[in-house]
Amino acid sequence: MKNVFTALFATCLVVFVSSEVLAQTPATVEIEPSTLELKVGDTIQLKGVDKDADGNAIPDAQVLFFGSRIDLTVTPGGLVTAIQPEDTR
Predict the structure, then answer these.
(1) In what helix (H) or strand (E) does residue 67 lie, and over which residues does it extend?
(2) Residue 45 phi/psi, 5° resolution?
(3) Alpha-carbon gap, residue 5 to 2, rounded angstroms
(4) pLDDT tens for residues 23-78?
(5) Rounded to 10 degrees, what is the CA torsion of 87, 46, 67, 76?
(6) To 5 degrees, how large is the angle CA 70–CA 68–CA 49?
(7) Residue 4 and residue 39: Cα distance in Å, rounded?
């Protein structure tokens, strides 16, 4: 097992947009940072920005995060913590 892992958010996170913003449907959601390299116990804060078709940030949009991996935890506010080594099978 490795004690460091890299996570691409396209494969480990799902992003939801609050219903108040759905009238202005985002064309893209940008997540920063887009990749991570964490050691077990490391924590990092993600930032999500909804953008319209012209690339403008949608004001007051709320991005909620959650993860589906067993090697990290993700809070709805985007705080990611590595809790065990990545399963590389």
Answers:
(1) strand 63-67
(2) -95, 125
(3) 7
(4) 678 889 999 999 988 999 999 999 999 999 999 999 888 889 988 888 999 999 99
(5) 150
(6) 130
(7) 5
Q: Contact at 8 Å (CB) between 76 and 64?
A: yes
Q: How far apart are CA 84 and CA 45, in angstroms?
A: 18
* pTM for the structure as a whole: 0.68
Structure tokens at 64: 């909620």
Dig out the tokens for 70 from the structure: 């067993």
User: Which residues lie across from 48 on neighbouring strands?
Assistant: 31
Q: In this structure, what token pair is assigned to residue 54?
A: 């012209």
Domain coordinates in residue numbering, the chain: 4-82
